[in-house]
Amino acid sequence: MVSVEKLLTIDYLSEIKLLTDRKTIEHQEVSNVEITETPDVEFYISPETLILTTGMIFKDDQLQMIPFIDSLIRAKGVGLAIKSGRFLNGELHPKVIDYANQRNFPIINIPDKYPLGRLLHQISNYIWNQRKEEIEFALSIQKQFSDLLLNNTSIDKVINEFSKIIKCPIILLSPIKKAVSYSHHFTKKPLLIQSLQEQFQKRFKQKQVPNDYFKMKDENDQTLLISASSVFVFKYFPHYLLILNPENMTYPISAFTIDQAKLVLSYILYKTEKVFSSYLHTSSSFMLETMGGDTLNKGILYKTIEEIKYVDSNYYLAVEVNVSSALEPKLKTVKLYEKYALILDFLKIYGQEYFKDMFLFQTDANAHLYLILQNHVGNLDEKLMQCHDDLLKLVNIDMIFSVGESVSSIDQVSRSIDQASLAFKARLTDYNKETISYYNNSGVQHLFHDIDSKDINYFCESVLKELAYPQTNNLKELRETLKVYLDNQCETTLTANILFVHRNTVKYRIEKCQELLGVDVTDPRASLNIRIALMLSV
Predict the structure, then answer these.
(1) Which stretch of DSSP H or E encloses residue 367?
(2) 67, 73, 27: which is closest to 51 by C-alpha?
(3) How far does CA 110 lie from the centroid of its chain?
(4) What crossing angle do the helices spanning 65-74 and 94-102 adopt, rounded to 10°?
(5) 206: three-class secondary structure by DSSP
(6) What stretches of 44-154 show up as alpha helix (H) in DSSP?
(7) Which residues contact 349 (CB under 8 A, 6 or more apart)?
(8) What is the rounded CA–CA span in Å between residue 331 and residue 496?
(9) C-alpha dist (Å) from residue 213 to 5, 27, 186, 246
(10) Which residues contact residue 296 at a Cβ distance below 8 angstroms, ignoring those fewer than 6 apart?
(11) Phi, then psi, of 352 in degrees rounded to 5
């Protein structure tokens, strides 16, 4: 693409003049040129098109040009070049110029001596020649970046190489808006990095960051122009590439070049994220296996695991970390797993600020993330809430914590993990969205947590039949009604009020449940088995 500003500096177009304010051509990029004399052109042009016209259709009423400008803006056009001497007596109505300035849309005057056909040909050739050079340059950059990839180069190296190419400072921010890497310009300016990071977090608090230009302040309170663009490692939560002073980039730097850099960054970031997640999961599995072994000095063994910072203590506590949307059984989506990945990233960076001597523990590669606290934390609820609130401010992720009981030996951590897991499963039963929930060891589930899951499933299916693990909405409805009915001492009216249905509906559903189960659900023995099975078959 070529900027409108650049087109106006070409020697053979020197007599073409800008009629609107200079600011209207800032950051306007042209990728196509069209000649038209029709008012409905918005439906037939591509974005970033410059329109050439004689304005014949406006000769009797120039103010009709105002809705025409609106239509071009809707079509993402980048400007209107008018041969005003042909039908408009060589000048445009001041109201049209004023309106174009208000909408930040450039209007250009074409002198009579420029035939539109030849002008179209000249500008199109110039754009394509520029694009060819840009593509060749981008392919050269791609080769450089490919070489970096083959040599297993770090993010920092790529950022610095890219910064040298475009001759601008660069910052790469994570989805939680934390600086992941930055170019050498900031090596001796940690306060500037911190300031820009905080300004960015404040400006885009829980908001989508547009691929656009905006302004921030440097350490001397001077205005900085910044270009932001998304780097997609995650589908819903991208990283952000910030280029400072992008106006200093010179030809042939283009969107092609930046896209090549972003592609390489995406690959390296994805690889890094997957390697860390896999390593943490493998380390956690190794640690769990070791807990059941006969190794005498497990502390030495644990210290060999880089990501698990083991501390010799007489206090260990597991906290399972989830998001509130995980309580929705139908929402096991890509977005949910991306949220887990961002929570992992957040706790990896900031966890020690809330919980000294903690480490992260992951029992599978996608979820079931645990905080393992290795010393007693005063005001634990307060610390967890602060952690929850801080992440929520950065990105719209609502963490929930399920807390096990403390144990006195590292060998017993698996018990605390099981308890934290049971506390989360209890949430599923009660649909408990409270930020913090504790394991209740007096519950019936505690009696069964050491029993093989196959035996539990068999018991649940024997008692509840099709209601144990319902697959249809009708069966799920029956199960829910049965649970509420039993939880409320078989009171039909109370059950109807809780479910917002008629009493007769409750009676009908309970009768259907009794048909399916083959028992009277009010019978004490049957009721006890059904209650236990409902609790275990979450």
Answers:
(1) none
(2) 73
(3) 46
(4) 20
(5) coil
(6) 65-74, 84-87, 94-102, 116-150
(7) 176, 178
(8) 28
(9) 17, 9, 20, 9
(10) none
(11) -65, -20
**pLDDT given for residue 92 in this prediction:** 93
CATH architecture of residue range(s) 311-448: 2-Layer Sandwich (3.30)
CATH, domain range 453-536: 1.10.10.2840
Contact (CB, 8 A) for 384 and 373: no
The C-alpha atoms of residue 143 and residue 161 are separated, in whole angstroms, by 13
pLDDT at 51: 94
Taking CA atoms, 222 is separated from 155, 203, 217, 457, in Å, by 29, 17, 5, 66
Q: Judging by beta carbons within 10 Å of its beta carbon (0-12, 13-18, 19+), is residue 101 exposed, middle or buried?
A: middle
The residue whose two tokens read 């914590």 is 401
Kindly list the domain boundaries of the chain, sorted by start residue: 2-127, 153-271, 311-448, 453-536
In 204-312, alpha helices (H): 255-291, 298-303
Give 10-residue mean pLDDT values along the chain (538 residues).
81 85 88 90 90 93 94 93 91 94 94 90 84 74 73 83 87 91 89 90 82 85 89 88 84 71 84 76 70 52 60 88 81 79 89 88 75 88 93 90 87 85 83 86 55 77 91 90 89 89 93 93 89 82
Domain 2-127 falls under CATH 3.40.1390.20:
yes
Question: How many angstroms separate the CA atoms of 481 and 471, rounded?
Answer: 16
Q: How far apart are CA 133 and CA 131, in angstroms?
A: 5
**Domain covering 153-271, topology:** Beta-Lactamase (3.30.450)
CA-to-CA distance for 19 and 91, rounded, in angstroms?
10
Per this entry, what is the length of the chain? 538
pLDDT of residue 464: 93
Alpha helices in 184-333 (DSSP H): 190-203, 255-291, 298-303
Residue found by looking up tokens 């990896």 in the block: 348
Strand partners, 242: 171, 228
Q: Are 369 and 340 in contact (CB under 8 A)?
A: yes
Neighbours of 345 (CB within 10 A): 19
- Specify the pLDDT at position 262: 85
Decide: 355 and 373 in contact? Cβ < 8 Å.
yes
CA gap 48, 459 in Å, rounded: 66
Whether the ω angle into residue 106 lies within 30 degrees of 0, i.e. cis, is no
pLDDT in the model for residue 521: 92
Measured distance CA(315)–CA(310) in Å, rounded: 12
pLDDT of residue 183: 92
Residue type, 145: F
Residue with tokens 């002198």: 111
List of residues 6+ apart from 505 with CB closer than 8 A: 496, 499
Q: Which two tokens stand for residue 479?
A: 């199960």
